Amino acid sequence: MPDDVAAVRALAVRLAREAGAIQRERYETAIEVSSKSRPIDLVTEVDRACEAHMVETLRRERPGDDILAEEGGAHTGGGKAWRWVIDPLDGTVNYAHGYPCFCVSIGVEHEGVRTVGVVYDPLRDELFEAVRGGGALRNGRPIRVSAVASIGRALLSTGFAYDVQDSEHDNLAQFVRAVKSSGGVRRDGSAALDLCYVACGRFDAFWELKLHPWDVAAGILLVEEAGGRVTDLAGGPPPASGREIASSNGLLHDDLLRVLRG
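Now predict its structure.
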């Protein structure tokens, strides 16, 4: 691993663990919760504290890098060799309700290419990490996607955008088709963890619409480095914007796309 990539990976792991410690300390305590775009689109003081810690550290230790962070703590201008794409607390609604499914997600791009991905689940103390060309790990051990080849036996996962209550482009038709075609569909509320679970074989596939770059920057790399496949719903390259994503173990990917497209 080149020295610069190793240094970025080490810092990403450190930041994810430090932000995770903040989440673990404040979990199920009295916290300030407010809404953003819609009443069900929540943000907490813990989201902001985690983001502030990571952004301040990056500005101090890597002042030449770009940063894209969900809560707006850093949206630098672009054009730098390295860009950090950060979701300080993926699964905020879960966190605010005391539902134990949330994480820190950090994806790092080099010259526009996904190069490092780190996702940390602080309650389970599970650290998922990947470096392009170096495979994917969970707590230091290699992980691989599942070997399930039939969508009829597959366990899938998905989610719904915050505008689900008033948008016709709501993923519900895809959800119904997937339920009727698969071995089961879960909806846990953390896209970053869903992608990690595809990477380690807990889920056989995951799809979602209307995500954002910080939701998928780390997870896409983890799935690919674990031997899986990630595309848009037409089978093309996954958009960095996260507007739609389909990920799987690869074996059932074409069947997944057929089901989702109807």
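The mean pLDDT is 94.
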